Amino acid sequence: MRKIREALRLKAAGLTQREIAASVGVGRSTAGEYLERAKRAGLGWPLPDDLDDAVLEARLFPSAGGEHGGIQGQVPGEVGGQAGSQPA
């Protein structure tokens, strides 16, 4: 969720999708998906203080694992659903 939060912050700062993707370390299409999901969920920057990662994920990925066959809770562009996590 850290990458999504950063993407929203950078968008609010006026960066382009290409600049956001480079800064966050994801592809342009992934950055675009983050921003589009946030827009559809009615979220922008700053995010509400009480919006923790679990709630943010539920709002952005309501059917994680269903529609696209992804792993439950896994965020595109983040290994294992968490930024920087290593396989066990």
How is this fold's topology laid out?
Blueprint: H1 2-12, H2 17-24, H3 28-40, H4 53-60
Can you walk me through this structure?
The structure is a single chain. The chain has helices spanning 2-12, 17-24, 28-40, 53-60. With 88 residues, the protein is mostly helical. It has a domain at 2-62: Arc Repressor Mutant, subunit A (Orthogonal Bundle), CATH 1.10.10. The radius of gyration is 12 Å and the shape is globular. Residues 66-73 and 81-88 have low confidence and may be disordered.
Global shape = globular
CATH topology of the domain at 2-62: Arc Repressor Mutant, subunit A
Which sequence of SSEs, written as H and E, runs from N to C? HHHH
Poorly predicted residue ranges? 66-73, 81-88
User: How many DSSP H or I helices?
Assistant: 4
Number of strands: 0
Radius of gyration based on Cα positions: 12 Å
Structural class: mainly alpha
Please summarize the sheet with the most strands.
none
Mean pLDDT: 82
Short characterization:
The protein is mainly alpha-helical and 88 residues long. 45% of the residues lie in helices and 0% in strands.
